[in-house]
Amino acid sequence: MNMPHAASIEIKSIKRPKGSRHAPSPHRKLLIRAILLLALLLALGFGAKYVYRMLCKNDFFQITAVRINGSNMTSKEQIAALSRVDIHSNLLAINVQQVRSLLESHPWIATSEVIRDWPNRLLIHIQEKNPVALMNRETGLFYLDSKGQIIAAAGPAQELDFPVITGFENFPFNMARSAQIPVPLQNVLDLLKLAKKNNPILPQQNISEIHIAEKGELILYLLDRPFPIYLGSYGKISTRYYRLVKVLQDLYKTREFSEVSYIRLDYEKDTILVGKYDAVAKSQAVRKGV
Q: pTM of this prediction?
């Protein structure tokens, strides 16, 4: 009797492809690369920061000269002190924006430009505000700009050759800068703008004072002869200015200017009253249609 053969099982080993053992997934590879790149950037960052700190202490970038341009109402000494930069500062270490902010905090400085001139010079260009008149206040004279804003108090060593505005000694100039300028003051500013065109009959240089009366009337005083010129408060200031120019031109031609005691543009419509001195008493001349 034949015995059945025992079943035999053949086990074959499965070989993995070469290099595929424990192979990371594509996402894992990407993560590893990102970590390595981050580590490299951090190393470079710390290295660059260290190098920057060393250069900020290096004598090679130590400032040897500070050049300041544009200062007129301010002194170069004031600008240098305000900038907080001196010859011991490091050109690389200074904060240009901070220096500009410090400079423009000065009441006279409108804008500023700070330039590094490598390797060791600093250039400072400033643009000062432009005064058009002096405003008489209870505490003294103050410079006024073309927008009707006070710039700063006038010092004895500063230029004082500007028309003086009186009558606004108590006006609250501490109001918000957006506050509307009163009409009389705006008329004064417009009048000065016209005179700045240097009409030979009435240039700005010949205006000594402009007084703003209680009801807003303007009274003008010339530098060569300080008699009152009543401009009134009605009508366009340009019309009043050119009417006055025409009257003064006629007075200069006839040599009557030295005899004038006052001029009234507010006498009547289309009529100007010119007061004159004679040997005995004051006389008046009426000019119409000017």
A: 0.74
- CA dist list (Å): 83 to 22, 108, 116, 153: 64, 14, 14, 22
With b for 16 or more beta-carbon neighbours within 10 A and e for fewer, the 247-264 pattern comes to bbeebeeeeebebbeebb
Q: Mind listing the pLDDT tens digit for each residue in 186-202?
A: 999 999 999 999 899 99
Decide if 11 is inside a domain: no
Question: Are residue 150 and residue 280 in the same domain, yes or no?
Answer: yes
Same domain, 158 and 121: no
Parts of the chain with a pLDDT under 50: 1-2, 6-9, 11, 13-14, 175-176, 178, 279-281
Domain that holds residue 232: 131-171+181-288
Residues 69 and 139 in one domain: no
